[in-house]
Structures are given as C-alpha cells and as structure tokens.
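Worked example 3 (structure in, sequence out).
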C-alpha cells in the first residue's frame, strides 16, 4: 500500500513529465579561407548560401576587405571548399 500512496501523491501534484534526449557533443572547428574573387555584397550572399548548404548551423564571418571567410562548424573543411568552388568562388584554406 505504501507504494500506491506515493504514486497517488505524486500524481496529485500534476507535474509535467520530463523527457530526456541524448546529448551529442561535436567538435567545432574554426576554418579560415582566402576567397580572392570575392568583392561585393552579391559575392558575400552567394558564399553564405554555399556554406549554409553544407551546414545550416555554421557560424560565418566574411571580411570583404581581406577577402577571407571564417567558418565555425563541425563539418570537414574540404566540404566547404568544394561548395565554394561549385558556387564559383575557389578558395584556399588558411591556417586558423
């Protein structure tokens, strides 16, 4: 009977049930690319779209003056380089 009393008391509290989901940790890396053909806002928008097509959660910093793109993501740098190339902006990976 004691176990039933506890269940009744807890059910009377009307607390929401907590659901847990597994936590997945990924190693994010900061990658830096030189994109020599990047020169304007249209270039910037095209590059952002290319990067987001690989990883929509990537953090992107684009500096038109220095023609560099910084990407923070857990995705492989080669995947971003390929996407940039495919969008018309060949790039060179720089030391981060």
């Amino acid at each position: 009977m004691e176990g039933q009393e506890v269940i009744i008391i807890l059910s009377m509290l009307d607390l929401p049930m907590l659901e847990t989901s597994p936590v997945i940790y990924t190693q994010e890396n900061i990658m830096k690319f030189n994109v020599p053909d990047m020169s304007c806002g249209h270039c910037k928008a095209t590059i952002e779209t290319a990067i987001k097509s690989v990883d929509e959660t990537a953090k992107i910093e684009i500096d038109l003056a220095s023609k560099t793109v910084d990407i923070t993501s857990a995705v492989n740098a080669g995947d971003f380089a390929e996407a940039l190339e495919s969008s018309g902006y060949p790039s060179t990976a720089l030391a981060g």
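Notes: The chain has one domain: 24-94. Residues 37 and 89 are 6 Å apart (CA to CA).
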